[in-house]
Amino acid sequence: MKATVTRASFLCLLVVLSILVKSHGDPYGNPSPAAPPPSAVAGKEFPQFLFCNDPSTKCFHKVILCPQQCPTFKSSDPNSKGCFIDCKSKNCEAVCKTRKPSCNGIGAACYDPRFVGGDGVMFYFHGKTNEQFSLVSDHNFQINARFIGRRPQGRSRDNTWIQGLGLMFDSHSFTLAAKKVANWDDETDQLLFTYNGMPITIPSGHLSTWAARDGNLMVERTVTYNSVTVTLPGVVEMSVNVVPVTKEDDRVHSYQIPSDDCFAHLEVQFKFFHLSEKVEGVLGQTYRPEFKSPVKIGVPMPVMGGEDKYKTSSLVSADCKYCIFGVDGLHGATQSLVLDSDMTVDCTSKIGNGRGFVCRR
Description:
- The protein has helices at residues 2-24, 247-253, 307-310; strands at residues 49-51, 63-65, 82-84, 95-97, 108-110, 114-116, 122-124, 132-137, 141-150, 159-169, 172-178, 191-195, 198-200, 209-211, 218-221, 227-232, 236-243, 265-272, 311-312.
- The strands form 4 sheets. It has an 8-stranded antiparallel beta sheet, with no helix packed on it. Strands 13-12-11-10-9-8-19 form a 7-stranded antiparallel beta sheet.
- It is mainly β.
- It is globular.
- It contains 3 helices and 19 strands.
- Residues 1-25 form the signal peptide.
- This is Root cap.
């Protein structure tokens, strides 16, 4: 009976706080910083919550509570899962997830490199060694990737990995990249950052944060080393890991990795909040409503071409043939897509050895 009363009291508290948040929350449903979190009230620990106040979302006017399994958005334990709430989700329920990228989730780019598109189709994009390509190009932002790689003896093409990312928005630019490393050490940070062309430092440590003074960009470490989340509110969230090509990877795939470079690279998952129907890029094009994937389904390695369409001259350039960031006349585009970032691809499926599996919304 005591637990019931406590729960009822907490729900009453949610109603009061919801009114406050409705008055002061931002357009994306985030609580006002001025409102005290429930966990701080009367010294009691209550689950965190989100009031959805964006009328364009399915969960408009609903209060979504974090479950007991993950009561907080950001756990003080880097090994614990956090609470994720999306006001556009189908069931208007919070879920417990790790804050690291899911290589099988929508918007993922991992391995050599393997993508999962917005349409749920998995594909490979090889790119070229030491060149840059646009992953996403929209009217208000662009994300490029730099590829590193090598060509094993007897092979006809390079094996490539994503080594760096460049984000452009408004008049700003941000980059993050993995250092060149001979011997991998989990206790050493291997990330480099720049903002508007100048190096920035983000101290090591779980939840250590950097924020731009002249913009909304924020970077937060999700563990002590080599994992971060980059957030441009209302636009994109990037979850990033730095990992090496391991000896086991080398043995299985015969990469012929040299002794002086473990080819440290990025595992990334993107979550987009608003994309126009004209969005372009290797990954961005797969979010367009009329997009039909040209990759061959069921083959061991379905490859997406387009190197000539999406090649850029640098990590922070929007000069590819199909780039639309900064193009006159597109800044007025308001038609955006409804995005579902919770869908995943089951790459353990027996269909196509788990490498050509298709999952469509």
